[in-house]
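From the shared-data thread, chain only:
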Amino acid sequence: MNAIIVEDELIIADHLSQILSSIKVNVIEIIDDLADAEKSLAKAPDFYFLDIRLSNNQNGIELGEKLNQLNIPFIYITANNELEVLKKAIATQPTSYITKPFKERDVIAAVELIKLKVKDSKYLQVITAKGTKKIAEKEILYCEAEGSYVKIVTENGTFVQRMTLKKTLEILSDDFIRIHRSYIINKHKISSFKSNIVFISNHQLPISRAYKDTISN
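Structure, as tokens:
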């Protein structure tokens, strides 16, 4: 697994990095600034360790909100016991949090929670205007080929990526099947189907003869 640490106290960041290395978590980068932390989204880490209070009055909760929107797991590091601050932090749905001064077992326990979350959730990674986003497979309804691009239709929006439909199917799990040269569907989202049509939510998609047996199985 790959992690990024956002922490402006170098001694604490180094200590955390050493603990993570000892449990085979690769630390991609240690960052002490929110602007650089947002840029690091392009590196697509599996999760973040994020200090709530950074220097220059920067608030790590701002990044926590963005990570939550992008479905990227994160763990807060905090020495703050102000109730209102903690309420705001909890609202961003971190996977866990550790308090300073932290113990090695606290860090390991937090990482184990991350591993469980990643194990239980399968993701497709896409690039958006806000950076890299991990879309949970369970949210995907279907994917449609559009030339050298693929349109990914989810319960919460649509994303367009420069990728072939074939490559998309290779990345996705066995929960996805091809029903047409232009369509891949999440078989768990099927409402009903006929000989040449499948219904997913309020979408009606064609089934080609070549893939007719796939849908019936």
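The radius of gyration is 21 Å.
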